[in-house]
Amino acid sequence: MRTVAEASLEFFPALQAVGSVRHGFIGRIAGIDVVTDRAEALARLDQVHRNFRQRLGFNGMTFATAEQVHGNGIAVIEESLQETRCFDGADGLVTNQSGVALGIYVADCCAVFIVDPVRRAIGLVHSGKKGTELRIVQSAIERMREKFGSIPRDLVVQLSPCIRPPHYEVDFASEIIRQARACGVEQVEDTGRCTACDLVSYYSYRAEKGRTGRMLALLGLN
């Protein structure tokens, strides 16, 4: 029988095939009461998330997150960070620094992993209905091109589980895929899994009426 920790952790084959990165998607954690607001839910999940980061080998890296305001701001991390940092006004993070672990929290929105295995650069983006309308994934790809010389055809883009019709009125996952391909990305992968369909494995803001926890997407360069 799998343990709770194993049941709450996912890896994506397309990213596992890239030897230069480590990643993980931490789903619902059994036994923690998250029927509260976002800040308190994250506080209650914090120690478990820290344990997962250590288990996945991120403990030697500085943890970077975004404020996640449902915009299209991208924070560029071009040098090592000395301490954990949340970037104000940002919904996406890109870096070429191997000592930085990127983190994005989601509960129905999509965490979009972007990896450039050629120039050793990565991005992690929070894209829900609003962010997708603002083309945040396109913004992240453009920033990686500007700052790190990334070429879209070299990128691997992976979508996390997220809410989908009929549980949500907009299929923003399909639009994220369309936008990535329009940028010239050839390898775009999607789990196809719906967060609102599986409340054993995932948190769902819509299905749980806003009082729930958050999944944590993690991405870092080896």
How are the strands of the biggest sheet laid out side by side? 1-2-12-7-3-5
- The global form is globular
Counted up, domains total: 1
Largest sheet: 6 strands, mixed
Number of strands: 12
Could you please say which CATH topology applies here? CNF1/YfiH-like putative cysteine hydrolases
> What is the chains' assembly state?
single chain
In round numbers, the mean pLDDT is: 95
Helicity level: 10-25%
Report low-confidence residues grouped into runs of 5 or more: none
CATH superfamily: CNF1/YfiH-like putative cysteine hydrolases
Helix and strand element order: HEHEHEEEEEEEHHEHEE
Rg computed from alpha carbons, rounded to a whole number of angstroms = 16 Å
Distance between the termini: 31 Å
What is the name of the CATH class? Alpha Beta
Strand content: 25-35%
User: What structural category do the secondary elements indicate?
Assistant: alpha/beta
- Any idea what the CATH architecture is? 4-Layer Sandwich
- What is the tally of helical segments? 6
SSE layout:
Elements: H1 4-7, E1 9-10, H2 13-16, E2 21-26, H3 38-55, E3 62-66, E4 74-77, E5 85-87, E6 92-95, E7 100-106, E8 110-116, E9 121-127, H4 129-133, H5 136-148, E10 156-159, H6 172-182, E11 187-190, E12 215-221
Parallel strand pairs: 3-5, 3-7, 4-6, 10-11
Antiparallel strand pairs: 1-2, 2-12, 6-9, 7-12, 8-9, 8-10
